[in-house]
Amino acid sequence: MDAPKKTIGKTIFFSYMEIIIIQKYITKNLDDLNFVKINKALKQTQSFLDIKYAIIKNNKKIIYPKNENSEELIFLQNQLIPFITNKYHNLNKNNFFSFKMASKKSIGKIIYLNDEYYLVVYSDFSKYRKYSSIVNLILLIILLFSLIITFMISKKVSKKISYPIIQLCKYADKVGNRQYDAEVIEYDYKEIDQLSQTMNKMAVQLSSYDSTLKTFIQNASHELRTPLMSIQGYAEGIKYNIVEDTDKAVNIIIEESKRLTDIVNVLLFLSKVDSMQEKFTSNMINIEDIIKNCIEKVEGIAVIDKKKINFCPYNYDFEITGDEEMLSRALINIISNSLRYCIKNVNINIDSNDKNVSIIVKDDGPGIDRDDLEHIFERFYKGKGGKFGLGLAISKSIIEKHSGSIIAKNNDEGGACFIITLPISK
């Protein structure tokens, strides 16, 4: 005979609630010795695993079932009750049991009802094996169907996800070959749609940058070609004794060389600012102090040209974080530009809100041509009287590296207006 197997017993009795109810019902009616009700209730019970019940007294007398001619009663009297009696001397411990006699293997449990009666719950284990095989077969079929459905769904979902990614890869390849036609495609998946929109924005920005770069190269080539041609012309004139006034020719060569050097230095500086190779120091800067210092540096030009720079202090210590030297260079470029085009006055004011401080530079000149406004910060774009067309471009780059912004517009009363906005340090 096999030893009791608690795990198997618990698995068999998945109709456990039925057993609990039967136990409570029997216990209640035992108090009244109402065996008629008990017999009737037990006869009406049915279980998926054909669970059977027997009630025995502590003297091992069978109270239920009562039918003396039944096969089940004979099995209980001749096999099950003797096995329990020999195996378990103390029936109060609710023991699980498992035994095999002849070809019949049973598994069950002894349930304590009171000091006199016990409930024996048992079932033919072979039936459990039969049902277990059926259940396993059903589970296997369900598993196979689940795998097929899962495969079909995953294939469909993966195709739905991979298709837009393949399309985006093709688009990225086009962008890599400088084909910047924006293909705005909407996708069902939020993340992929965001990626698509971001790539479209990237293409637009790259297209703009590429166009700006081409224009810059063209303008730079033009600006560099003019002094080089002048130098080359006078140098060849001196070599072949064509130029009569060699001293004048040499001076022109020197001046054009200096001009060429200035252009190259400005271009190098602008390139370093753009690529962040130019190291920016980060210090606390009083905005009014930096404006006053910049005015002092350019005031000599204003005096010579009989012009005036007017600054109205805000009387509040605004502080920003940044590189004082770089910001001074940007501000000097703006003020110098205003001095170049003003008639008599350049006015500088400060405005602020909770987050930013604005430096407003106005002049009383003719203002900026409407056609020039949108190009004024582009490199080598020169207005009337401009030098290289790089000063305002440098100012814009420096200010943007300080998380600021600059705009240009015309005053209602006439003249140009530049507004520099920088974040206030907290």
From TrEMBL:
This is histidine kinase. Residues 219-426 form the Histidine kinase domain. The chain crosses the membrane at residues 134-153. GO terms for molecular function: ATP binding; phosphorelay sensor kinase activity. Its main location: membrane. It comes from Caloramator quimbayensis. Pfam families: HATPase_c, HisKA. Its EC number is 2.7.13.3. SUPFAM superfamilies: ATPase domain of HSP90 chaperone/DNA topoisomerase II/histidine kinase, HAMP domain-like, Homodimeric domain of signal transducing histidine kinase. One of its GO terms (cellular component) is plasma membrane. PROSITE patterns: HIS_KIN (PS50109).
